[in-house]
Design a protein that fits this description.
Layout (H helix, E strand, L loop, with lengths): L1 H25 L2 H5 L4 H6 L2 H24 L4 H24 L17 H19 L4 H7 L1 H17 L3 H18 L14 H9 L2 H6 L9 E5 L2 E10 L6 E10 L13 E6 L8 H4 L13
Antiparallel strand pairs: 1-2, 2-3, 3-4
Helix pairs in contact: 1-4, 1-6, 1-7, 1-8, 4-5, 5-6, 7-8
Length: about 300
């Protein structure tokens, strides 16, 4: 059983890295998701985050080819272990720097960094070390022990799926939404015009063009929120400028308090960025690309 596991680990890793690498490199959602990742906060640029994600995807696909074609060579496995260690370091730093941001591990997740991301990175590290010590070919093991091999691969697929955030999106979230539609939200009414939960407004905001444009200035999660004239105002802190010219700012977003993810059309988002000390508007060049009806009132 030990030899079977050791010989098939390169095949399992190739499947995992092939999937995540393909999504990062080829999926159009990479550009949309990059501003929400901890990587964008680290690099202070959504564009650079996209380039790094694409590069990591290319590396993952290269390792996939090596694991499939050279399973008996220690080089692909050792390189995969190094990649897994790098993932763990990145996740630890990203969790500390921006706990509300996603990791971008598969480039189509928008949930914060959780234990699942760390577990997947640990699997890559341990699997790479195991593959480096393997001296057999996975295709030989498949032909010699097909029953045990298929069972092992099935179990591995179940484990990797359980460690992915995607199952929540596949069936848990749709079931929860259906339950809310049938029973109504426990905190808010179901009639037309009722306000949606703040978390729904935050999710809607983070999917908008306004957030993608202003996110390079934002340096915090949601700090405060209130409602005014039918608008829900969300307050974040941020930094405008670089080095000696950097100064703290308050970034305010406002959107319809009744708008949710299922609302038709793109939400209208109002944006204002003001100096945290003086309350004077700043960073207009950052916000010019945002579809804004009017600026929000300054914050004292």
């Amino acid at each position: 059983m030990l030899s079977l596991t050791t010989h098939l680990v390169p095949l399992v890793l190739a499947g995992l890295l092939g999937w995540t690498g393909s999504v990062k490199l080829f999926d159009r959602d990479t550009v949309r998701q990059a501003p929400r990742t901890a990587l964008a906060r680290m690099l202070r640029s959504s564009e650079r985050a996209v380039l790094v994600l694409r590069a990591v995807g290319a590396v993952e696909l290269l390792l996939t080819a090596g694991l499939l074609a050279l399973p008996a060579s220690p080089v692909p496995g050792a390189a995969t272990a190094v990649l897994g260690a790098g993932f763990l370091a990145y996740l630890g730093y990203g969790r500390a720097l921006a706990p509300e941001s996603s990791c971008g591990c598969s480039a189509n997740e928008d949930t914060p960094i959780t234990w699942r991301a760390f577990a997947r990175a640990a699997v890559v590290l341990a699997g790479g070390a195991t593959a480096a010590a393997s001296h057999g070919a996975w295709w030989s093991t498949l032909s010699e022990r097909p029953g045990g091999s298929l069972l092992f691969l099935a179990v591995a697929a179940v484990v990797l799926t359980a460690l992915s955030a995607d199952p929540d999106r596949w069936w848990l979230l749709p079931l929860r939404r259906l339950g809310l539609r049938v029973r109504g939200h426990p905190l808010f009414g179901t009639g037309r015009g009722d306000h949606v939960p703040v978390a729904a407004s935050v999710e809607l905001l983070e999917r908008s063009l306004a957030w993608q444009t202003a996110s390079p200035v934002v340096r915090s999660g949601l700090l405060d929120h209130w409602e005014e004239d039918g608008w829900r105002i969300l307050l974040y802190s941020g930094v405008h400028g670089t080095r000696k010219e950097a100064r703290p700012v308050s970034v305010l977003f406002a959107l319809d308090a009744t708008a949710g993810r299922d609302s038709p059309g793109e939400p209208v988002v109002r944006v204002s960025c003001v100096d945290a000390d003086s309350g004077e508007p700043v960073a207009q060049e950052v916000l010019n690309a945002v579809p804004v009806r009017r600026a929000l009132p300054t914050v004292g």
